[in-house]
Amino acid sequence: MKEGELILLKDKKGKKYIFALKKGEVFVSDKGKISHDEILKKKEGEKIFSSKGEQFLILKPTLADFVLKKLKRISQIIYPKDVGQILVLADIFEGAKVLEAGTGSGALTLYLIRAVGEKGKVYSIDERQDMIETATKNIEQFYQKKIEQIPNLILRKENVSEIKEKDFDRVILDLPNPWHYLEKVKELLKDGGILACWLPTVLQVFELTEKAEKQNFILEGVFETLQREWQKRKIALRPKDRMVAHTGFLIILRKIKP
Asked: Which of 26, 38, 103, 205 is the most buried (most CB within 10 A)?
């Protein structure tokens, strides 16, 4: 393990703790204390014991772990179950030029950075300065580097109507009124390009689809993802008591020529 990198400790009950390693620091929980110096001597996948004799597994957090456990939020985030749907149905590919409007806390932005790869580019914008500042901190914490050092990301305070860049392969709108920007999106998006919109209510979906069909967009589909986890306890295998049900609707539209 290296100083400064994010680490995940997982106890026997599956509870996860995520933090950055720093020499001289001590991890403290109700299950005891563990010196960061001791963790630094270990390798990923090894076990370590606290001052109370409790066992922890040492792992590096996945992006989903970070988003669910560590990401600072000042708005509702797009959850990993929905991010997967967006990446697949919006066909986010390596080398793509993607516009994300509605950065929020930066959860989807983190996945887009990874999906487009070094040859792609993510332009992520938000009208609120506090959102940009929060997303910046979250992205820098995950990558352990300054925003300026992430070459495939441009993050800034801006409104969709102000964007001057064009020829985007994909546009993703996480806004309450995406139909207001359909004319602008037509200018920004390549012919055949995909517009993905994330909306929480049926009325918003209806409003968008009605207006999009009059603006040279074809509707590829409206999707909702429900996720049910299962658990194994000794010889029993059954669904968990809680289920992640409705979080939002994904609307996929495609730009066509008049």
From this structure: 103
Give whole-number Cα distances, 177 to 25, 219, 233, in Å.
Answer: 47, 17, 45
- Residue whose pair of structure tokens reads 């392969």 in the numeric block: 169
CB neighbours of residue 116 within 10 Å: 22
CA terminus-to-terminus distance, the chain: 56
Helix (H) or strand (E) segment spanning residue 153: strand 153-157
Count of alpha carbons within 13 angstroms of residue 249, beta-carbon side: 17
Specify the length of the chain in residues. Answer: 258
Helix (H) or strand (E) holding 66: helix 63-69
Residue pLDDT, tens place only, 171-208: 999 999 999 999 999 999 999 999 999 999 999 999 99
**pTM of the predicted structure, to 2 decimals:** 0.91
